[in-house]
Every structure is written in structure tokens, then in C-alpha cells.
Design brief:
4 copies of one chain form a homotetramer. Chain A is α+β, with helices and mostly antiparallel strands. Chain A has helices at residues 11-16, 41-56, 61-66, 140-146, and strands at residues 19-25, 73-80, 89-100, 103-112, 118-127. The termini of chain A are close together. In chain A, 41% of the residues are buried.
Chain lengths: 154, 154, 154, 154
């Protein structure tokens, strides 16, 4: 299953798979004294990717929250392959997949623009919460977008 | 005017001046590739000092917010004297002073514990806001605590 | 007493297992507009736990770096059970285990002090690097401390 | 067009004054539970502006560090006019001015793109340090760029 790579070419997947690519540049604030980016900051870039992915889906996370649905993280994972460094330009590739009516998974790939090297891969799982903080079904349009036809088999 | 130093000895100021000392240890996350603490993070330590100072005053900022009063920063300033480094233990000395019924100023001094060296001095100004985001008078007890006798003359 | 790893089974393992508990208080800077702590910040607390654990082992991470060995993160994972909130006092429980001569795993449990509720569990994997950035064996004393008697069988 | 500093008075100064505009979008990680951006994060955006300004000048801060000159902050100031909120697009306008051969000042203006509202103004002062951490003259080309014709009189 492609994660964030160049657009899948087959019409079947093009029709349903949603992915996005976000460009970030490493800030000095994000480095640590090892002269690489501090590991926790990768999750902030994943958030940038996720936000853009949701925006591409036709609604923004800001709107979702305005409607009373929040999407807190219940699980986060990252594998670090090569260090990101100050001033590097990076592409955050993001994809989403519905795990259940109340739960959605995003996967990420972090690519260094200068040479295409993969720097990290990651994954976050989110649950829909209503205004009272109780789990709730994600809005129908969100479910429609991220519920890929082949997701049942995964 | 003392800022965060050892308790002022004169009874007049002892009676009214409130200050606090908070201990923090520098986190790796707070350093940058210059092998010192990134400058913006000093303001987070000032927040730690301010929070403890408010707690010492008899109410916490958490309680204040629960009552519907928030204290956003409208001005922030820091002068950096010597760099803080990873794993350093630091004391944040904080003091508060009412500027008007809706406005309060905190001053900070950051001291390296190992040798007492001053690393930074800072200042933040805050305004009281009600639940609708409009400026509001700070609670009476807060005003009583931070309204030093000599503040009228400043 | 043991947390985040296989329970110590006997006096032998009790004697060698090393764990630590670090107290942190949630900073306002660590919250987000969901009124809970932003998920990436849990990894910073894990770093606080890991640093204290290493300090308890008889050497500090600062000293380790001074000797030319760094321990970058190559994998990070967190599961979020209940949200941490502003001003909460939290205990970070950390344990370490040697995975190979060049690789070490730390596991974490985050506990809310007021009621003992577990808020999160996590795991980071680190690799020893020398000054040139090449994988290197961890110092002998580190290997001795974190190489639990039963680790060979895991 | 000039922002955050004395208005360019003539074509001469227009010719030499260097400024830049950087676009950022507010990250969820940057908000706090007041549902606005945490005040310390504005300084990170100022860094983004300063970095782009330096890049426009013909050399990057990354290159400067590679040559052995670092530019740590010795003073930082920000005034907050209106809150920045999640997902807002913001323009960071930055300008630089040499204060002495070893010291440079940057001023910033933060503008909300949607309506042009000014959200904050800021200022940082930096000193050139050599590899040993001693104050040093900034490279000649940097001094040439930021040494405005009228700066001698200020």
C-alpha cells in the first residue's frame, strides 16, 4: 500500500485514496545540541501533513472543531532513518484510512527534498470526540473520503 | 527595587512584596544546535516561575481560569547574559506588581544554581480578560497581593 | 514497583533492574487548544525520565556526550490513555534494557499523581553513536547496568 | 512597504534597506488552552523571518555557521496586539540593521493575511560569536548589507 508516494496510477486507487504532500523547512528552534532535529518535533510536522490532508479532503480540521468534533491522538509512532538538519527542506507525505466509524489512522513519510532521501516514517491514530469528550462517529463526509474500498481487507 | 532576590528585609516591603523561586533543569528538547538553550524557551521557564508565584499568593492560575479570568501576555522581554546549557539546574525568581486594576507585570531573574551566575532577566505584562475576551479587573485578592505600597509612585 | 516492562521475577532481577521516577508539572506551554497536553510533548517528559534514569545509573547523559557517545532516538512510540492537563503533577516512570551492544530500549509509564491514574505508556529505542556519527558499542558500565540477566532470552 | 523600522526616506535608503516577508501557517502545536498561540512561539516565527531575510541577503545562516560565526540572541522583545489562532496564515516581515560591527538588530511585524491586521511587533538583538564563543566582527558582506546609510547617526 502506497504511503504518500507519487500518485498511485491505477484508476481504482486514484478514485479513493487521498494523500497530500506538505513542504516544511527545518527551524533552528527544532534542532537540539546533537545538531539534528529533536525527535519529538517530527510529530509536529506530521500534524502539518495531517492538517493539509484534511484540508484537501474538502473540510479543514479547524471547521471540524468548530462543528464540535475533535480528533485527539491516541497512539503515535515514528521510526527515524536519517537525521533532519537545520534549514533542510522536507516533504511530509500523509495518508488517512478509517479504522472504524470513530477511529482514523494517518501514516506519514518524511522526505528530504534535496535528494529524495526518506528521513522518517510515522503513524498516528485518532479518535473522534464530541463536545463532551465522548467518542463519536466521524462526520459522514470524512468517513466517505477515508474509507477506502480495500480497507476491509487490510 | 528588588527582583526575585533574597527576601527584602525592610518590614514595609516584606509585608507586601511577593516573590518566588522555582527550580528547573534544562531539558535536551530545550537546546538547539548552538549547544545552548534556544532563546524562546526562557519564556517557558518564566511561565513556570509566574505559575509558582501565583500559587504562593494563595490561588493558582488554574483556579483563576476556572473562575473565568485569563491573563494573556501582551508584552514579553528578555535579556540574555550567559547561556543556559543542557542539564543545568536553574532557579527562576519571579515577582509581580500591579500596573493598573486590569494589568499586571511580572519580572524574572534566571540564576544558574551551581555558581549563582545570573543567566537572564525578563519581564512580561499581562492583562485580565473575562470569558468573552474583554479586559476585566483582576480579582480583588490578586490586586491586594500585588499592589505594592510604592507602586503608585512608579 | 516495576513499570513498563516485564515484572521483576526474583531477587536477582530486582537487584539488577534499574528504574526511576521523575516528577513533572504540566506547563501551560505544553497544552493546546483542546485544553489538554499536545501529544508530542509526552516525548519530552519521557526524555526527562530517561535522563534521570541514566543519572541514577551512575553517569549522566551529559557526561556520556562529553565522552563522545550520543544516543539518538531511532524509534518512538506512545499510547495515550487519558489526557494530561495544565498544572497536573505527573510521575514519569522509566526503565531501560539493552537490546544489543549498540542499542538500548527505554519504556515509560506516565502517572497522574493526584489519583494514580495511568495517562500514557511509551517506548523509545536509541543507538550509540561515536563522534563521527557511526554506531558504536555503549560503554561497558552502561551495558552492565541495563543488561538484565534474562534479557538474553527475550 | 518598510515595516518595523524607520521608513525609508529616499531612493538611496530604499536601495540598501533589506527586508523580507515570510508566510507561516499556525500549527496546532503552537496553540495553548487559551485557544490562541502561546506567546513564546512568536519568537520562533521571528526566527523564520530572520532566516529568510538572511537568505535574501545572499548568504544563509546555515552558511554563516559553517564559516564559524554564530549569531546568538542577547535580547528579545515582543508586543502582542491581537491573538494568532490555529490555522491562521501569517506574514512575518523582517528587517535588519547593524548596531555595531559585532551586533545586529532585527525588527519584526506579524500580519494576519486574511485581513492585514497587525498581530505583533518584535525585536531581537544578536551578537556575532566566533568558534570559541568570543564576540567577533560580522563578515564584511553582512555589514555592508545591513549598515544603512543613516545608521551612523542613530
Amino acid at each position: 500500500m502506497s504511503t504518500g508516494g507519487p500518485a498511485p496510477e491505477s484508476e481504482d486507487t486514484v478514485a479513493t485514496a487521498l494523500h497530500s504532500v506538505s513542504r516544511v523547512r527545518v527551524r533552528y528552534a527544532e534542532t537540539d545540541q546533537m545538531s539534528v532535529v529533536y525527535h519529538a518535533n517530527y510529530f509536529v510536522w506530521f500534524e502539518v501533513g495531517r492538517t493539509d490532508l484534511l484540508r484537501r479532503s474538502g473540510w479543514s480540521y479547524r471547521e471540524l472543531e468548530a462543528e464540535g468534533v475533535s480528533l485527539p491522538v491516541i497512539e503515535a509512532h515514528c521510526e527515524y532513518l536519517q537525521p533532519a538538519r537545520y534549514d533542510d527542506e522536507l516533504d511530509v507525505r500523509a495518508e488517512g484510512r478509517l479504522m472504524s466509524p470513530v477511529r482514523i489512522e494517518f501514516t506519514y513519510e518524511l522526505i528530504r527534498v534535496s535528494d529524495g532521501a526518506p528521513l522518517a516514517t510515522g503513524r498516528t491514530v485518532h479518535v473522534g470526540l464530541d463536545r463532551r469528550g465522548r467518542p463519536c462517529r466521524l462526520p459522514a463526509r470524512v468517513r466517505a473520503i477515508f474509507d477506502a474500498p480495500d480497507s476491509a481487507s487490510r
